[in-house]
Each structure stands twice: as structure tokens, then as C-alpha cells.
Design goal:
Elements: E1 26-31, E2 34-37, E3 41-45, H1 52-55, E4 58-69, E5 80-82, E6 85-93, E7 95-100, E8 105-109, E9 112-117, E10 122-127, H2 130-135, E11 137-147, E12 158-162, E13 168-171, E14 177-183, E15 185-186, E16 189-190, E17 199-206, E18 211-215, E19 222-228, E20 230-233, E21 238-241, E22 244-248, E23 253-258, E24 269-276, E25 284-286, E26 289-291, H3 294-305
Antiparallel strand pairs: 1-22, 2-3, 3-4, 4-11, 5-10, 6-9, 6-11, 7-8, 7-10, 9-12, 13-14, 14-17, 15-16, 17-24, 18-23, 19-22, 19-24, 20-21, 20-23, 25-26
Keywords: Iron, Metal-binding
Organism: Hoyosella altamirensis
GO molecular function, one term: metal ion binding
Length: 323
């Protein structure tokens, strides 16, 4: 799991808990079921079974992989539409190509993030590069859907390419955890992602026996998802392991600790820290469209079918299945 690494002893430290701060406790822990997406790449449905009110402003999250593909096996998605929200694709290990109908695109790999604001409507494709299909290799990432409030659902589409070197790197108070802030703020340190909906999105690597205690905006919800490894979360030290999501209650601090012993092929606890300001508006979702009413979904389908989301470029990417 390469992502972005650094010597934690050289990084700014997140100060430990203060007397007036309240640690968040765990409301629930759920285990994401496995499934397949697009042309058939494996995913873990991280938010399955969690009430929408606990996720708000997030809608959906898939852990992509982790899988070691043989030559000819890598798969992605073909061209498809989106409206009404933002897609965030964080590539931890491996490579993925993106192209959209509004000129955005590029290759994301090893700690980079593709941030696409679908807004009023966009077509895009995500697919492994031809060389990865030919050779096979590791594929591991995350795709997160962030809702937009009613007032922003018809924004002009926007694309942000956030290279791994741009993330803000921090260390836990004990030096045993590396925190990569992709968007939002932790302890006064901001990540590079520009968001319409106020959120925090970070990836932490916590070494065996170490603990991460991070201040958290009390107006935000708080979610901890385990990419790999095992440990505990919350003020009560609730056990949590790979593929599980912890929903936390109110408070202004999150605590996650790694178990002293980890599996040999997963030497540390890898977690995502997620939170945002709830939008608290009605949600009506139909596949890749996330709006407020059924009528708006009908209009989205009509606009897509009429070509209002743009056109696939004549030289646009196509899924590659090898020669």
C-alpha cells in the first residue's frame, strides 16, 4: 500500500486531547458486503446498511479492490452520466485513467485523487490504462460520493487533479500514525481539495500499538472506515477491522488505535477519516443521479438522453480488454 509515505518524526504533530474536549463514542459498526462494479471490478460497499442521516453529506462509498490482477484481468467502467453531486476517487495503489465530457482527465496513481464535481451533468469514464491491462498488477482505491445542496446541484462541472505530493501530511502526538489530509481541516492543517460541501477526508496509517487522536469539527458527522488491519475506535475502544465502518456520535475528537499485532501482509492499521456538515435536505437517488425530488430525476434522465450532459469526445477513451 504505497500511497504517500513520510518520516512521521519530521512532520507537524497533532496535539493530544485537551481537558475541555469530548471524545466521540461509537453509535454503530457495520461490515460492508462485497460486490462488483462497472465491467466487473471487485468492491466493498462501505456504507451498506447505514442510515442516510448518519452519512449526510455523503451518499455512497466503495473500496475498490484490494486485488492483484493477472494480465488481461483489470476492469473499469464505460462512459456513464452523473448529476447533482461530486465523485472523489482516491487511488492508493495502481493506476486509473479518467476522461469526461467537459475536458477533464488524466491518470491517477499511488496516492493521487481525482475530484469531479458533476453538478448540472457530465459524462465520464474510468478505466485502467492499456499497459496495466496487459501486465496486470495491484489495484486498490476508494470512490466516495459527496452530495451537493439544492443550491449547488446545477453548478458547472469541475475537475480537480490532486497529486499525492499535494496532500497535507501530519503525525499523531505519539509519532506512530501518518495522516494524509486530502480535503478539509485537521488541527488547523488543510488538505488541497476544494469542496462545495464542507467536509474532511483523510487517510491515516497507524502503526501497531500506536494511537491517533484527532480534533474533529463538532458540527460535522464522523465516520471511520478500515481499509486494512485491525484496532479500536471511539472513546470506549470498540474493536474494528478491515471492511468495517464506525459511525461516531457527537463530540469534538476522534480516537483510533491499532492493535499490537497485525497480520504479516497488513503491517499497519489503515483507516479513512470522514466527516462533513450535514445538508439535511431530501434525497432522491436513481443510479448516477442524486437530486431532491422524483421530478428532478425525470428531468435528469431527459437531459441526459437529449445530450445536455455533453458528448463523448471523438478520440475518447474506451475500455481496453487486451490484445
Amino acid at each position: 500500500m504505497p500511497a504517500v509515505t513520510a518520516d512521521t518524526l519530521t512532520l507537524p504533530r497533532i496535539a493530544g486531547p485537551q481537558a475541555a474536549e469530548t471524545e466521540r463514542t461509537v453509535k454503530a459498526v457495520t461490515t460492508g458486503p462485497r460486490g462488483y462494479e462497472g465491467e466487473g471490478f471487485p468492491v466493498t460497499r462501505a456504507f451498506a446498511g447505514v442510515p442516510a442521516a448518519d452519512l449526510d453529506p455523503f451518499i455512497h462509498m466503495d473500496q475498490l479492490g484490494e486485488v492483484e490482477y493477472a494480465p488481461g484481468e483489470p476492469r473499469g467502467t464505460d462512459w456513464h452520466p452523473h448529476r447533482g453531486f461530486e465523485t472523489v476517487t482516491y487511488m492508493i495503489d495502481g493506476r486509473f485513467q479518467h476522461q469526461d465530457s467537459h475536458g477533464g482527465g488524466g491518470v491517477i496513481e499511488n496516492g493521487a485523487t481525482q475530484w469531479m464535481t458533476a453538478g448540472s451533468g457530465i459524462l465520464h469514464i474510468e478505466t485502467p490504462p492499456a499497459e496495466l491491462v496487459e501486465s496486470g498488477g495491484t489495484f486498490h482505491g476508494v470512490q466516495l460520493w459527496v452530495n451537493l445542496p439544492r443550491k449547488d446541484k446545477f453548478l458547472n462541472p469541475r475537475y480537480q487533479n490532486l497529486e499525492g505530493a499535494q496532500v497535507k501530511l501530519l503525525s499523531s502526538a505519539d509519532g506512530g500514525a501518518l495522516v494524509r489530509v486530502i480535503a478539509g481541516d485537521i488541527a488547523g492543517h488543510e488538505g488541497p481539495g476544494a469542496t462545495f460541501t464542507p467536509i474532511t477526508f483523510a487517510h491515516a496509517t497507524i502503526q501497531p500499538g500506536a494511537q491517533l487522536s484527532a480534533p474533529w469539527n463538532p458540527a460535522f458527522n464522523a465516520l471511520v472506515y478500515v481499509l486494512s488491519g485491525s484496532g479500536t475506535v471511539g472513546a470506549e475502544g470498540r474493536p474494528i477491522t478491515q471492511g468495517q465502518l464506525a459511525v461516531l456520535g457527537r463530540g469534538d475528537r476522534i480516537t483510533v488505535a491499532a492493535a499490537n499485532a497485525q497480520e504479516s501482509h497488513r503491517p499497519a492499521l489503515e483507516v479513512l477519516l470522514l466527516g462533513g456538515k450535514p445538508i439535511r435536505e431530501p434525497i432522491f437517488q436513481y443510479g448516477p443521479f442524486v437530486m431532491n425530488t422524483k421530478q428532478e430525476i425525470i428531468e435528469a434522465l431527459q437531459d441526459f438522453q437529449s445530450g445536455a450532459f455533453g458528448q463523448i469526445p471523438t478520440d475518447g477513451l474506451r475500455p481496453f480488454h487486451g490484445r
